[in-house]
Design a protein that fits this description.
The chain is α/β, with parallel strands linked by helices. The chain has 13 helices and twelve strands. The relative contact order is 0.10.
């Protein structure tokens, strides 16, 4: 954001911090802001104490936040939160329209109005929707209300007069994915689980040569990927917990030599049997998820990835993965929503690098998931012997599709 605004001589100002007595966190926040943008980011203050802290601020390199929210992917409104907020606001409100509770937290009138509105939904039945995937449900370059799960939520709540609660689980490895789902169910109910099929973790397992960031030694390392010798580092190092690790969706392009090396890496891994191993691991996980959902009476939807018709081993392996998943879906009588988009309008579906989905792609996936949920009538109580639903691709979207090959780990 800073780089975008700088040519226009526009400064970025951080939003106010409402905990007026928590000076420690406020100082930590200023340090992080300074690390990100130096003196190019301003800070709104709400009282004299915060003003003095800003005036006396001295940067401390490497300062981190001591308190972090641990449930950022659980988008539900906590039980009784709205009622508690309304009572606290009305008890402490002043003539100026704002309130400060006994802990020194400023309670805004906007959140008060939102809480009043939410109270009107308390009598409505809940639909608990959990999405298991990668970065797609948490994209920061899309307005929150335009992300697919929020579009689905809005449409479902309007059509069915329910509370549609969204929870997100991210996975980069096969090994711990089912545990994450099971742990989530222990914490709150799941009525509908959408499991996103992702080529990236599959392709990492196929590779013969693998680079990663080792948290213990704090250094970049490499290893051969040979499952038959118990060398499977892509499954040992979770990219979601390695803050300095290589991203799951690598940067596209690279030099000609790098592109050739990437293809040779996949070829060598395939010849070494890694492709067979990778599919066996993914197939095992999908079957476990299917069994888990049957066992716990959870409605399951498998969401397919964009399917590429580009050349190269990465594209070929990704297309084969989707075919194998579709065969498994039909054999298991599971609902499947196609994630393919026609290449004809790639510029509309993805960003300039072909990595992150556009707002338009979110709209299309929201519509397909919404139609999938509505096909069987009420989301709750859907029979598991219901027919398989493969959401069709509109004719206008046919004729090849996305740039998913560029979503591979960059070597």
């Amino acid at each position: 954001m800073i780089n975008i605004l700088e040519p226009y001589k526009i400064s970025l100002v951080n939003s106010p911090y409402l905990q007026l007595r928590n000076d420690t966190f406020f100082k930590e926040m200023l340090s992080v802001i300074h690390t990100l943008g130096g003196g190019k980011i301003g800070q709104i203050v709400l009282n004299t104490a915060q003003s003095r802290i800003c005036n006396a601020f001295v940067a401390h390199p490497g300062q981190s936040i001591s308190f972090q929210i641990t449930h950022t992917l659980d988008l539900r409104v906590p039980d009784n939160y709205a009622n508690t907020f309304v009572k606290a606001f009305e008890l402490n409100v002043e003539q100026r329209g704002v309130a400060i509770d006994d802990k020194g937290v400023l309670l805004s009138p906007q959140e008060y109005q939102a809480s009043l509105s939410y109270q009107n939904k308390n009598h409505l039945p809940d639909i608990n929707f959990t999405f298991v995937g990668g970065c797609f449900p948490v994209q920061g370059d899309i307005l929150f209300d335009d992300i697919f799960h929020q579009v689905v939520r809005s449409r479902i709540e309007e059509a069915k007069k329910v509370k549609f609660n969204v929870n997100i689980i991210r996975y980069e490895r096969f090994a711990n994915s089912l545990h994450k789902i099971s742990r989530s169910l222990d914490q709150h109910p799941i009525d509908v689980l959408t499991f996103s099929i992702r080529p990236e973790p599959f392709l990492r397992l196929v590779k013969f040569y693998y680079r990663y960031y080792d948290q213990v030694s704090k250094s970049k390392k490499w290893s051969l990927n040979l499952p038959w010798m118990n060398l499977v580092n892509p499954e040992k190092f979770d990219l979601l917990t390695n803050s300095n690790g290589f991203p799951s969706a690598g940067m596209p392009g690279g030099s000609f030599i790098q592109k050739i090396f990437r293809q040779l890496n996949y070829m060598a891994g395939t010849l070494a049997g890694n492709e067979k191993f990778a599919w066996e691991q993914y197939e095992k996980l999908i079957k476990e998820v299917i069994h888990f959902c049957h066992q716990h009476n959870v409605k399951l939807i498998l969401l397919g990835p964009p399917v590429t018709f580009r050349s190269g081993m990465g594209a070929k392996l990704s297309r084969k993965l989707v075919r194998q998943v579709k065969n498994l879906v039909f054999a298991s009588n599971v609902q499947f929503v196609d994630g393919a988009i026609g290449r004809k309008n790639d510029a509309d579906w993805f960003d300039g690098n072909g990595i992150y989905a556009s707002e338009k792609y979110h709209e299309v996936m929201a519509d397909r998931l919404y139609r999938s949920l509505r096909t069987h009538g009420s989301v709750q109580g859907i029979p598991y012997d219901a027919p398989i639903l493969v959401m069709p691709i509109p004719q206008s979207e046919m004729d090849t599709n996305s740039l998913m090959e560029q979503n591979e780990v960059y070597l």
